[in-house]
Amino acid sequence: MTFDLFDTLPPMPEQFIGARSIVLRGFAQAEAPALLAAIDLVLAASPARSMITPGGRPMSVASASCGDVGWVTDAQGYRYAAIDPLTRAPWPPMPPALHGLARRAATAAGFPDFAPDSCLINVYAPGAKMSLHQDRDERDLAAPIVSVSLGIGATFLFGGLRRIDPAQRVMLGHGDVVVWGGDDRLRFHGILPVRDAVHPLTGRRRINLTFRRAR
Ligand code: SIN
Ligand code: FE2
After folding, report:
1. Residue 122: CB within 6 Å of ligand 1?
2. Going residue by residue through the chain (215 aa), what tens digit of pLDDT does each one get?
3. For the chain, is the Cβ count within 10 Å smaller at the N or the C terminus?
4. Which residues on neighbouring strands pair with residue 120, listed in sequence order?
5. Domain range holding 133?
6. Is this prediction's pTM over 0.90?
7. Cβ-proximal residues to 45 (8 Å cutoff; 6+ apart), any chain
């Protein structure tokens, strides 16, 4: 019998990146095909589009939402809206597969009873990025953020509570889930420009799902 070192490693290691911040490696990997099928249906109804920042710049990611409300940005600012400004219809409902994953990930990270009412879908083509920011448009900051990475990889920046605080660089791959909340809820975070790659399930795309309790 041969002894393989890797057989002794846990299959799903957790990595704390803050006292209340954790990377659940591969947590969504097994269900990724079902998640992507559900995401395709959402995006068929509410297409991912580049939104305009309050400063007038188009974002490099293409975004859409599902759930009771969706995060939007335009010249009027950042906010949650029940109506998709592109289709002028309500956002598609949150598919049960997405809601269930978010709840299980939150529970695994020490936040039981997470009831997300909004899921932002960010589609990154090679070169797209997300500048350092806080998620602070939600009414109740007691609920955590659950962030799911699918497709090609990216470097996640995880900073502190002040913009000037140094940021950790965390590689995120297909199926990784990051959860942060509690005293870490308002930590700055972002994504470095995505490098070109191909993933068998998403092609040359990274898809991020961000689940939040917005209202
Ligand atoms: C975000 O903070 O809105 C997106 C983070 C990510 O794409 O991983
Ligand atoms: Fe964010």
Report:
1. yes
2. 445 555 555 555 789 999 999 999 999 999 999 999 999 999 999 999 999 999 999 999 999 999 999 999 999 999 999 999 999 999 999 999 999 999 999 999 999 999 999 999 999 999 999 999 999 999 989 999 999 999 999 999 999 999 999 999 999 999 999 999 999 999 999 999 999 999 999 999 999 999 999 99
3. N
4. 65, 210
5. 5-212
6. yes
7. 87, 89, 92
